[in-house]
Amino acid sequence: MVTAFLKKNKSTFFVTSFVLLASYEENTKLQLMDADIVSMFIIGGLILGIAYLFFTTRHRERMKLFELFADQPEHFPKPFFRADALKFGLLGVGIAIGSLIGNLLYENNLLEEEIAYTSMVFLFGGIGLVSSYLILRKK
């Protein structure tokens, strides 16, 4: 009986099977997309949870130290100037200026691209580090 129906209505059978196949592929894509979204939320939640635990534990430890050594100021060092911030800041500024100057040299056909960028980035990055050394030496 089914074969007789298929012989009479071949086009109907193929259209219905195509529609069923297309809906199956859409459902599979939706399931995969749902799994991606869920995994992103799980990973994000884990990262936020670990960060929350880290900062709350750190705060509790500091409060305990403060309670134990509140009358002894030598256990709490004074804040100091971070030389790394100045060093990395001037290095970044030097690299940025070196990139700009390297681009100018390349666009004006004064040097080849690789030579222009590489030499200017190292030159101005080094100038940034030397200037940070000179600034810190004065302090």
Keywords:
139 residues; 4 helices; single chain
Notes on the structure:
Residues 40-135 form the DUF6249 domain. InterPro entries: DUF6249. The chain crosses the membrane at residues 37-55, 85-105, 117-136. The protein is mainly alpha-helical. The protein folds into 2 domains: 2-68; 80-138. The protein is 84% helix and 0% strand. It is flat, with a radius of gyration of 33 Å. The termini are far apart. The model has no long low-confidence stretch (mean pLDDT 77).
The number of helices is 4
Return residue spans where pLDDT drops below 50 for at least 5 consecutive residues: none
Quaternary state reads single chain
Can you give the mean pLDDT? Answer: 77
What would you report as the Rg, rounded to the nearest angstrom?
33 Å
SSE ordering: HHHH
Distance between the termini: 98 Å
Mass-distribution shape: flat
- The fraction of residues in strands falls at under 5%
Q: What is the count of distinct domains?
A: 2
Helix content: over 70%
Class of secondary structure makeup: mainly alpha
Query: Based on DSSP secondary structure assignment, what is the total number of beta strands?
Result: 0
- Please outline the major beta sheet: none
